[in-house]
């Protein structure tokens, strides 16, 4: 029904503007979550989780390994609704220390035949202080919350560490884990923070701050690093060495790609649009990257696999490659919330741990 009825309506919103459909969907979920009984009804359809999916990863208990990737609900406006759609965890953001509008519109493009999306959003968000205010208004969400933090565009690279630390300080009490986004292609210079020297400085500062913020608690909350799919294996290995040295809790693999391979001929006209590509063209790359990280670390470093999950088998493949958890974003656009339910069932039936 999603493909035949709902998706065509969404694709016509805003005269086909993908960002309009995105925003209206979020606001619709937010309004729905405020209607008495609506979340419960939604949960009965999509959110009932099969037995055997629970797992503990980097010290956090997840009711399901299937999560919502960062970028879908940047400012956390629809958080009560995501659990009802079957997600076992949600990652908000990427959020920056300074509020920023992001790049000029249009900046989000559907490549329908390729089941892909190109975005150059540019970390558009209300800022980490506003997100802290929003999160303080919620009670127990019923799932772990990840928070993705990035560098503000107005902040120079030499001041990036302080920028990240500011967001961590503001949001620390709300997150169950924190994702350090150094791999978006849409903030100038950001990917240079994946270089070993810059990365070591940044992660050391964040790890030190997390220890200070957790004084009297159960220990510092997990910090993960989100990497690009465009890194060479040598660059990945150097990055993993830094992560291991500093004590990073896990890796998120992968972000969007600047490559354009795997597009259907009809979508080649959009290949020249700047930004990161997600969806089906990333399926193979994400699986290979997860497998390489798993092999290189001997399975000692937990991995969240993300990129190219449009069928339950895609998620299972990432888990087989070594991912402890998976995240969906573009697949939700093309396959709807039924993808989450089917993926949960498939992983449970396969007994994948």
Explained architecture:
There is one protein chain. Helix 5 (128-135) runs parallel beside helix 6 (160-171), helix 7 runs parallel beside helix 8 and helix 9 runs parallel beside helix 10 (312-321). The chain is built from 12 helices and 13 strands. The longest helix has 18 residues, at 196-213. The chain has helices at residues 2-12, 18-33, 38-47, 79-82, 128-135, 160-171, 196-213, 233-246, 283-297, 312-321, 330-335, 338-350, and strands at 55-57, 60-62, 66-68, 89-95, 108-111, 116-119, 145-149, 177-181, 223-227, 250-253, 276-279, 303-306, 325-328. Strands 3-4-7-8-9-10-12-13 form an 8-stranded parallel beta barrel, surrounded by 5 helices. The chain has a 3-stranded antiparallel beta sheet with strand order 5-6-11, with no helix packed on it.
Give the SSE map:
Layout: H1 2-12, H2 18-33, H3 38-47, E1 55-57, E2 60-62, E3 66-68, H4 79-82, E4 89-95, E5 108-111, E6 116-119, H5 128-135, E7 145-149, H6 160-171, E8 177-181, H7 196-213, E9 223-227, H8 233-246, E10 250-253, E11 276-279, H9 283-297, E12 303-306, H10 312-321, E13 325-328, H11 330-335, H12 338-350
Helix pairs in contact: 5-6, 6-7, 7-8, 8-9, 9-10, 10-12
Spell out the helices and strands N to C. HHHEEEHEEEHEHEHEHEEHEHEHH
Helix content: 25-40%
Structural class: alpha/beta
**Number of E strands:** 13
Low-confidence stretches: none
Number of discrete helical segments: 12
The major beta sheet can be summarized as: 8 strands, parallel, barrel
- How far is the first residue's CA from the last residue's CA? 31 Å
Q: Going across the biggest sheet, name each strand in turn.
A: 3-4-7-8-9-10-12-13
Indicate the mean pLDDT. 93
Overall shape: globular
Amount of beta strand: 15-25%
Task: Give me the Rg, rounded.
Answer: 19 Å
């Amino acid at each position: 029904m999603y493909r035949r009825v709902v998706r065509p309506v969404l694709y016509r919103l805003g005269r086909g503007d993908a960002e309009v459909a995105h925003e209206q969907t979020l606001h619709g979920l937010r309004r729905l979550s405020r209607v008495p009984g609506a979340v419960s009804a939604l949960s009965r359809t999509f959110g009932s989780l099969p037995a055997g999916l629970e797992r503990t990863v980097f010290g956090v208990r997840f009711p399901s390994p299937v999560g919502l990737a960062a970028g879908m609900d940047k400012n956390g406006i629809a958080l009560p609704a995501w659990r009802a759609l079957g997600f076992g965890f949600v990652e908000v953001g990427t959020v920056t220390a300074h509020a920023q509008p992001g790049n000029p519109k249009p900046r989000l493009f559907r490549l329908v035949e390729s089941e892909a999306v190109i975005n150059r959003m540019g970390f558009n968000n209300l800022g980490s202080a506003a997100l802290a205010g929003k999160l303080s208004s919620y009670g127990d969400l019923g799932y772990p919350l990840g928070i993705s933090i990035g560098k503000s565009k107005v902040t120079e690279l030499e001041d990036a560490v302080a920028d990240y630390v500011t967001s961590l300080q503001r949001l620390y009490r709300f997150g169950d884990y924190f994702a350090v986004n150094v791999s978006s292609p849409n903030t100038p210079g950001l990917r240079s923070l994946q270089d070993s020297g810059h990365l070591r400085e940044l992660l050391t500062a964040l790890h030190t701050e997390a220890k200070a913020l957790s004084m009297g608690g159960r220990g510092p909350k997990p910090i993960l690093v989100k990497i690009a799919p465009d890194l060479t294996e040598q660059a990945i290995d150097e990055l993993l060495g830094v992560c291991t040295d500093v004590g990073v809790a896990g890796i998120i693999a992968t972000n969007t790609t600047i490559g354009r391979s795997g597009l259907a001929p009809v979508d080649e006209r959009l290949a020249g649009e700047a930004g990161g590509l997600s969806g089906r063209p990333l399926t193979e790359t994400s699986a290979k990257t997860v497998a390489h990280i798993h092999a290189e670390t001997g399975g000692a470093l937990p991995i969240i696999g993300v990129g190219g999950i449009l069928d339950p088998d895609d998620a299972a493949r990432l888990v087989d490659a070594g991912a402890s958890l998976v995240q969906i974003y573009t697949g939700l656009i093309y396959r709807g919330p039924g993808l989450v339910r089917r993926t949960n069932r498939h992983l449970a039936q396969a007994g994948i741990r």
